[in-house]
Structure formats: structure tokens, C-alpha cells
Design brief:
It is a single chain. About 50% of the residues are buried. The radius of gyration is 18 Å and the shape is globular. The protein is an alpha/beta fold and about 280 residues long. It has 10 helices and 12 strands. A 6-stranded parallel β-sheet has the order 2-1-3-4-5-10, sandwiched between helices. The chain has one domain: Rossmann fold (3-Layer(aba) Sandwich), CATH 3.40.50.720. The structure holds NADP nicotinamide-adenine-dinucleotide phosphate (NAP). NADP nicotinamide-adenine-dinucleotide phosphate binds next to helix 1, helix 4 and strand 4.
Length: about 280
Amino acid sequence: MRVLITGARGRLGSALLAQLAGKNHALTGIDIQELDVTNFNATRDLIKEIAPEMIIHAAAWTDVDGCAKEPDRAIVQNGFGAGHVAQAAAAINARVIYISSNEVFDGKLSRPYREYDITNPVNPYGYSKWVGEQMVREASPRHQIVRTSWLFAHGGKNFIQSILRAAAEGKPLKVVTDEVASPTYTDDLAAALTQLVDIERCGTYHLVNQGCCSRYEFARYVLDNAGFNHVAIEPILSASWQRASTPPPFSPLENLAGTVVGITLRSWQDAVAAFLDREGLLRS
Ligand SMILES: NC(=O)c1ccc[n+]([C@@H]2O[C@H](COP(=O)([O-])OP(=O)(O)OC[C@H]3O[C@@H](n4cnc5c(N)ncnc54)[C@H](OP(=O)(O)O)[C@@H]3O)[C@@H](O)[C@H]2O)c1
């Protein structure tokens, strides 16, 4: 299949390119240097020229605090940008996979969110991703909306590396206990998306590593498995951590739709161990 990936230099996009390269697809990866998806005409023209049968739209402005400071820019970049890609896909009858986020939910439920639970974003990043979902749904029935959360990737900036760097430098660690979600390894998500490319069933999916934890538990698990068991973390509440964006407090995702078509991801603990192992950091 001819597959186009946007955000190809990003954390997920680069993992996707690497994994899809091993399959029988003709791949094109583009990023903001080749196309700014906020430009509708340029998006329509370039997608028409590349003529993919499938587009995975992974590009986004992922700086959640930046989005909180410039909410209109977030809507244009993440919301309208996704709409432009989906409309350009529909014009050439290509299927589109839009990567969305756990932050479309308000985090007030007491169980993990299922695909068709009611969305209610509580911050500008979540709202912009939600606008993207609406625009993708409006543009074409040939869509798959894939929500994911707390990505960790090789190479890019991420929570695991920040925690390990601080521990190695002997810096005091304070991590919140009242933000809970599903940490997800980009390699596992990319493998799941590679499966989804071959499945025409449209709709909304939650693709995350199984289970959930607080940021504090996530950090503790990383340190314990990377030889830093002796390093203490001070548990704190998010109210004492000043930041521009307010995340949903409890936004684990449950993968029901993917399971129905045979797509399941391993536990987040196994995924973190695999990540550390590949980085040469696993000590157990
Ligand atoms: N990271 C997470 O924890 C997380 C969690 C849930 C969902 N997601 C979603 O998963 C997807 C992939 O995330 P990621 O972490 O791989 O993101 P990433 O590493 O930030 O990569 C996104 C890429 O998109 C590019 N981009 C930004 N605005 C663009 C525009 N207007 N036109 C074209 N390209 C543009 C970025 O370029 P610049 O770097 O130059 O801006 C970057 O190369 C995103 O849709 C994100 O919303 C991520």
C-alpha cells in the first residue's frame, strides 16, 4: 500500500517509518519542513501529488504548556491541520489514521476510558486534539481515530530520560501522584498501527500499553529497573506543581475496539523494561 506519514521526524512518526519499512508498503514520510498542514491548499496539493492510499497523521503541536499559552494556535495547528489532512485524503479516497490523545477526556471517571465514552477536554491541547477528531469525522467516513497517551520513545525528549538524567545527576526528584494514565512505548504503538493499516474497519481506537499508573509510580518503576532503587522520589500533588496546562487527573484508556480486531499491546511495565533493555539501561 502507498502510505504517507505526517510528523515523520517526531517520536511516533520516526518509529512508524522504521516499522512500516519492514512491511510491503511504499512509504513517504513528511514533516513541517515539507508541509505545514495549517495551509489547506498546500496540504491538498501535496497529498494529491503523493497520491497515498493511506495517511497516518501523526504531526501535531505536542507542547501542552505551549498550547495552553496560545490556544488559538493550538486549534489551528492540531485541529484544523488534522481537518485539512482528512479533507485532502477524502478528495483522493485515501483512508486516514488520526493520532489523538487521552487529553480529550476530563479525567473525572473512576474507570479507564472506553472509545465511545463522552469527551470533555479540560485544557487547550486536549481541546485542539478534540477539534481534530471532529474535523476528521466530518471529512470522511474512511477514518480511524487512534487515541494514545504518555508516549516514550528512543531518541526524543521523554519522561523516562528526564527522570534518569535527574537521578544520575543527583538532583532532587519530585513527582505527582494525582495524575494517572497509560504510559505507552512508541515502538509498541507503531507495531499496533502497522496492524491497523491492514484493517479497513473504521472508527475510534484506544491503543496504549495495558494498565495504568500515576506519574510517581511510573518514575519509581523506571528508577527501580534502571539501577536507581536507592534514589528517593518525593511524592507531590499537581496543585503544588506550577504549569500552564492542567492535565486530566485520571485518563487511562481501555483498548476495546483494537482487541475486537486482534490488536493488543503488552503491559506498560513490560514495555518500560523492553525500552530500558534496548537502551542498555535495564538492571534487575
Ligand atoms: N507525546 C505524547 O505523549 C502523546 C500522547 C498522546 C497523543 N500524542 C499524539 O501523538 C502524535 C505524535 O506525537 P509525538 O510525541 O510523536 O509528537 P512530536 O515528537 O512532537 O512530533 C510531531 C511532529 O509534528 C510536527 N508538526 C508540528 N506542527 C506541524 C504542522 N503544522 N505541520 C506539519 N508538521 C507539524 C512537529 O514539528 P516541530 O517539532 O517542528 O514542531 C514534529 O516533528 C501527535 O498527534 C500527538 O498529539 C502524543
